[in-house]
Amino acid sequence: MWYIYRSRMIPNGRTGGTEAGMTAVLQVGDKMPIFELPTMEGQAVGLEDFAGKRFIIFMWASW
Amino acid sequence: MAIDFQGSVKATAFVAHAHATYANVVDSANLFGDLFGFQAIPNAVFVDETGIIRYMKFGGFDIRMPADKVLAEGFAGSPNLEDLAAQSERGYAFEDEEARRLYRDGLERFKSGDLKSALTLWRSSVSLVPNNWIVRKQIWALENPEKFYSGEVDFDWQKVQIAAGR
After folding, report:
1. Is residue B158 part of a domain?
2. Which residues of chain B have pLDDT under 70?
3. Considering its fold, how many domains does chain A have in total?
4. Confidence band for A23, pLDDT divided at 50, 70 and 90
5. What residues have CB less than 8 Å from B43, skipping those under 6 apart?
6. B86, part of any domain
7. CA nearest B142 in A: which residue?
8. Is A63 part of a structural domain of the chain?
9. A33: phi > 0 → left, psi -120 to 50 → alpha, else beta; which?
């Protein structure tokens, strides 16, 4: 599996989650959880690549 | 970040067309859909240097629009980020848990190659939340690729689908 998601690392106790329930979603003020996703070329990019920097996640789709 | 369960195969051409110079990733497993719970795109999430989420907008974020551009530039340069939270827009939040479960189950079926079951589950999800464009439009793209991937995206065709309740 190419992505890492650790819901327990969200410090305010939200569980968000991909496996065990989907009741809580991230809100403004929450800590961004650790994530890692592949680029178009298959290289991994994750939260650690933006450590100490402000960044914007822009979400779009081909459809 | 491309929200594309078909993966980079479909998204790559759009990145090239945009001449994007920033990191472009693909979320084919709906990781961010689960984390944030949205039912429309384009979205933006602003994260500060300490990793705290300062702003989010679900549906309709467009950096070409003056209001969104001002927000983004302000985020990049402002020492005070407190005012951003009040401007967040979560109007397209995906809050129906059963619909989310059906979408996720469909995604797992799709990944395993069971397209028929995936489409059935996704349609059930859309029946619960008709305005979930994340699910609905991916069904369209899968069943009608010529309307999405043969030159320009056919938005007139999409309007017809919406009017017909598909």
Report:
1. yes
2. none
3. 1
4. low
5. A57, A58, A59, B36, B56, B57, B58, B59, B61
6. yes
7. A63
8. no
9. beta
Residues of chain A with pLDDT > 70, as a percent, come to 63
Burial of A27 (0-12, 13-18, 19+ CB in 10 A): middle
Q: Is residue A17 part of a domain?
A: yes
What integer pLDDT is reported at residue B55 of this predicted model? 95
**Which of B30, B34, B126, B154 to substitute to test the interface with A, most A CBs within 10 Å?**
B34
Residue B11: which of A28, A49, A62 has the nearest Cβ?
A: A62
**Is residue B147 included in any domain, yes or no?**
yes
Helix axes B115-128 and B97-111, enclosed angle (nearest 10): 170
Does residue A10 have a pLDDT over 80?
Answer: no
Domain containing residue B55: 44-91
Q: Is the pLDDT of residue A3 over 60?
A: no
Q: Is residue B121 part of a domain?
A: yes
